[in-house]
């Protein structure tokens, strides 16, 4: 470095010194060479062993000859320290530092600050190349992981093969239908733009998981003496909190949430919560995970018997008649069960329908919302099932313990006249003699209603958390009833640090 000054006084002895005149003083050990740096980055790319989308983007970015992100002719600025401060905290979320090459980045930043270079593996261009590549690699993995999650539930939770001997191709069950965002090329470009021209610290703070449960779990992970299994289960549920859902219950003032592992439903309106037990799908007929909106309440619904059940009772005319069922034929319309054809039921030409009312498998009330599985919340004709601890027993729908209370909750205004009609419609019974004629008390027809619109629609979330707050806000652990934790942990384990 040469310091020159100019005055109006006498001519200075060193006035003619120029940068070119000082070129002979250069020390090659401290000379940055962009071509050498890019060549070193190319070698790092060839030795890369990660196949993650974030790392793949970084590889392609440098392979395509794009500009360096962290290095310029002045060397390296404080942005490297900003990123290092964030990725150094990754151990508090259960991950190992090696995932982001934290130690190598920390050591190379030290070398730059202390000019600790040599003519071998730690030459100035090799150190700067490692920093350029590893900082970008860490930034992309960290930002995409914290903002979207480190595993993709749309892949690992939709991987069960359908048991269909008639199919000539591999078909997978779709069990995860929660709308979530995934990292895209535009996201990675935004990360580079912010790093190059924006406020990196603000960006890294903004992408942190926002859910209150995530903060609870992170504190639980670091402040409790956990077994290895408890540790991994906590990390698994933290990962669920990272998934970038388009809408969560925390975005809503009023909503209904079913957590499958706890077999509980919370209907929340501001500070008040209605809690009840639920029954969910059995292992072979899992309740799908989804987000939707309850649009309509239907009283005394008919039940369109699912194919999986219909094929087993298709020839049992007495059973169908005893359970108040009839046949719907695509060509002939409604038929008595005596005209049921086992073959036509199997090929879909006929359907078995159960009349609404007492004894109907859906109970006396159902809560309808759009979804791709034809599953709903509904009452049940067998209320004693709520006494069981493991309530994974249904064909996919969610049976609710307090259907009348849920119906009242869904009302925008507490219309007591409507509430009374709902209760009457859920409880009236028509007694019939052996010939099917009505006997007993008369039915109040003007008190019977069939449908109630839910206005505005109320968001409904069917979720899967094996660690979740109870009614007092205390974290409680539940069984991994569908084995989803095992799948997520299998993917996460490669990233997890030792306890």
Report on this model:
- It is a single chain.
- Helix content is 34%, strand content 18%.
- It is α+β, with helices and mostly antiparallel strands.
- α10 (228-242) crosses α16.
- The longest helix is centred in the N-terminal third of the chain and has 25 residues, at 124-148.
- The relative contact order is 0.11.
- The model has no long low-confidence stretch (mean pLDDT 89).
Helix content: 25-40%
Question: What's the main sheet like?
Answer: 8 strands, mixed, barrel
Name the shape in a single word. Answer: elongated
Structure classification: alpha+beta
Strands across the major sheet, in which order? 4-5-6-15-13-12-7-18
Task: List unreliable stretches of 5+ residues.
Answer: none
Compute the separation of the termini in Å: 50 Å
């Amino acid at each position: 470095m040469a310091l020159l000054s100019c005055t109006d006084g006498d001519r200075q002895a060193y006035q003619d010194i120029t940068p070119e005149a000082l070129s002979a003083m250069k020390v090659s050990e401290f000379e940055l060479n962009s071509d050498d740096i890019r060549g070193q980055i190319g070698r790092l790319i060839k030795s890369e062993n990660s196949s993650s989308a974030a790392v793949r983007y970084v590889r392609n970015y440098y392979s395509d000859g794009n500009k360096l992100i962290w290095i310029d002719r002045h060397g390296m600025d404080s942005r490297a320290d900003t990123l290092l401060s964030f990725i150094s905290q990754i151990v508090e979320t259960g991950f190992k530092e090696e995932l982001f090459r934290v130690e190598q980045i920390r050591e190379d930043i030290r070398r730059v600050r202390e000019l600790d270079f040599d003519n071998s593996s730690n030459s100035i261009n090799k150190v700067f190349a490692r920093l350029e590549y590893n900082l970008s690699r860490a930034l992309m993995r960290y930002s995409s992981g914290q903002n979207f999650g480190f595993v993709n539930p749309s892949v690992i939770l939709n991987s069960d093969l359908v048991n269909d001997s008639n199919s000539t191709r591999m078909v997978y069950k779709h069990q995860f239908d929660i709308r979530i965002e995934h990292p895209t090329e535009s996201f990675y470009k935004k990360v580079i733009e912010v790093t190059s021209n924006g406020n990196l610290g603000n960006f890294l703070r903004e992408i942190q998981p926002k859910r209150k449960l995530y903060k609870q779990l992170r504190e639980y992970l670091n402040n409790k003496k956990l077994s290895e299994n408890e540790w991994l289960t906590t990390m698994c549920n933290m990962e669920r909190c990272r998934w970038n859902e388009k809408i969560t219950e925390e975005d809503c003032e009023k909503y209904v949430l079913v957590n499958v592992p706890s077999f509980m439903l919370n209907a929340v309106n501001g500070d008040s919560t209605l809690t009840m037990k639920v029954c969910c799908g059995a292992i072979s007929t899992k309740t799908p995970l989804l987000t939707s909106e309850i649009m309509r309440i239907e009283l005394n619904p008919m039940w369109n018997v699912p194919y999986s059940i219909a094929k087993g009772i298709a020839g049992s005319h007495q059973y169908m008649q005893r359970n108040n069922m009839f046949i719907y034929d695509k060509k002939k319309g409604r038929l008595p069960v005596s005209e049921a054809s086992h073959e036509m039921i199997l090929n879909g030409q006929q359907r078995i329908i159960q009349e609404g009312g007492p004894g109907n498998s859906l109970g006396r009330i159902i809560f309808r919302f759009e979804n791709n599985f034809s599953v709903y919340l509904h009452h049940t004709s067998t209320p004693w099932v709520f006494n069981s601890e493991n309530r994974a027993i249904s064909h996919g729908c969610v049976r609710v313990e307090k259907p009348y209370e849920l119906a009242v909750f869904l009302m925008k205004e507490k219309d007591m006249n409507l509430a009374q009609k709902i209760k009457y419609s859920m409880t009236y019974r028509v007694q019939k003699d052996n010939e099917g004629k009505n006997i007993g008390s008369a039915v109040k027809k003007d008190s019977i209603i069939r449908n109630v619109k839910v206005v505005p629609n109320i968001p409904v979330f069917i979720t899967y958390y094996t660690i979740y707050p109870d009614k007092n806000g205390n974290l409680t652990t539940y069984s991994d009833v569908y084995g989803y934790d095992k799948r997520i942990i299998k993917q996460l384990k490669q990233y997890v640090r030792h306890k």
